[in-house]
Amino acid sequence: MTLRMLMLCGLLAASASVAGAEDYARQFQRDCSSCHGRKADKTAFNKAPPLITLSEQQAVEGMTAIRDGGGNSAAARAKAKLTDEEIRGLAAFIQTQK
């Protein structure tokens, strides 16, 4: 019985992470791709490098810094409502585009 419960928990966790990845893909396409490109391969506003050139940690640090720095730029407005979890999820999604 215990083994079955462990297997069920593992399957539920795996399906949740796949659903989460799909959610971040949709979120990226909806909120980020117009400036960063559908594959995160475009330079945004002649300032941000293509996101696919960044490591996951660099993407997290960059999005967090822009979010926490406030401001009225398009980048700051786009990131203003992102949670830490969403930033990590988007950064992980970006890595899949390489």
Describe the structure.
The chain has 98 residues and is mainly α. 67% of the residues lie in helices and 0% in strands. The protein has five helices and no strands. α1 packs across α5 and α3 runs antiparallel to α5. The longest helix is centred in the N-terminal third of the chain and has 30 residues. The protein is globular, with a radius of gyration of 16 Å. About 15% of the residues have low confidence.
Can you give me a brief rundown of this structure?
This protein is mainly α and 98 residues long. Helices cover 67% and strands 0% of the residues. It is globular, with a radius of gyration of 16 Å.
Distance between the termini: 42 Å
Largest sheet: none
Q: Would you count the extended β strands for me?
A: 0
Q: Note the overall shape.
A: globular
- In terms of per-residue confidence, which ranges show pLDDT below 50 for 5 or more consecutive residues? 5-19
Compute the number of helices: 5
- Give the percentage of residues in beta strands: under 5%
- Note the run of SSEs as H and E: HHHHH
Provide the gyration radius in Å: 16 Å
Mean pLDDT: 84
Based on secondary structure, the structural category is: mainly alpha
What share of residues is helical?
Answer: 55-70%
Task: Walk me through the topology.
Blueprint lengths: L1 H30 L1 H4 L19 H14 L4 H6 L4 H12 L3
Helix pairs in contact: 1-5, 3-5
Quickly list its features.
98 residues, mainly alpha
